[in-house]
């Protein structure tokens, strides 16, 4: 089985569907951003063959050559995304989900209205630059896996219930129901309302925070691709410790100035030691001393009902193969089993795909080991928050708010 991401190049093209005008082109080589661009003639040919098929009522979705896989996908008859990958072991499933994440990122930062009603191509090109950093993180070798599983990457924090209480109290004090703690793009704890966010924003928001350069505080306008694709909301972030950020999703209020140091100290000073213990959980995801068999080199655990996942390739210290190789192997194994052995039937709803993913998890040789992990015991729950379906006390952010 080939290792996904082993050298090779990935090219991502975004075009206006009606005119075929390129909006941007992003590339990566060996998992790192690259400046290599495709010739305009190649871009035109790739888009032309797709449009030719549409005119004949034929949907061209993918093609494969000896060393390259190509996937096309149109969104709202307005945006066409094309991805070409020469990475070894790349599957169509991985590329299809990549395109879904890319379009979600575009909506998150630009809004659906600008993408479906293109009035000024040059202005749209400039606006889309804000999404480049996030999109590039999808093309590279990320430590996260939510782009593939479509579940939120989480960690298992120590004493998660105490962090949950502090988060709930703080969000209530500032007047929003949507809050979470994020370390390296992974959710440490979140409020009930945050967990009720739809896909893909539940995956994209922590990923966005993890992809941004360090900053003490941010007031970031975002759209919710599922919940509010045309009306922006505010994503407020505060750095509690280096690598650990507090995120709030809200409307016009509260202003960033209201989040003063005294309010932060009141709620977070009592749990400062717990916050410090969460910082190293970025790559490991499991707290020190977590009971895990020494022979497990990588772990992928999905809770498909809650749309959360735990992904780590560093549970056993410095052993071969390297963490990068383990990550590629585990991603490739997940993709292989999901796409090859349990392919979705044509026209099957997303629930069927989720059920097939669950069958994959059941057949995994680690099942017996995973069933004994105390993910909901005293150590803390995966990603914090309740696992039940209790409705939130406060409603989600709406255009009226």
Automatic annotation (TrEMBL):
One cellular component term from this protein's GO annotations in UniProt: cytoskeleton
Membrane-traversing stretches: none
Domain FUZ/MON1/HPS1 second Longin: 176-269
Gene name, Swiss-Prot/TrEMBL: TSKS
InterPro entries for the chain: FUZ/MON1/HPS1_longin_1, FUZ/MON1/HPS1_longin_2, Fuzzy, TSKS
Region annotation Disordered: where it falls in the sequence: 374-401
Protein's UniProt name: Fuzzy planar cell polarity protein
Species in which this protein is naturally found: Canis lupus familiaris
Biased composition (Low complexity): 391-401
Superkingdom of source: Eukaryota
Biased composition annotated in UniProt, kind: Gly residues: 380-390
GO terms classed as biological process: vesicle-mediated transport
Domain FUZ/MON1/HPS1 first Longin as annotated: residue spans: 11-137
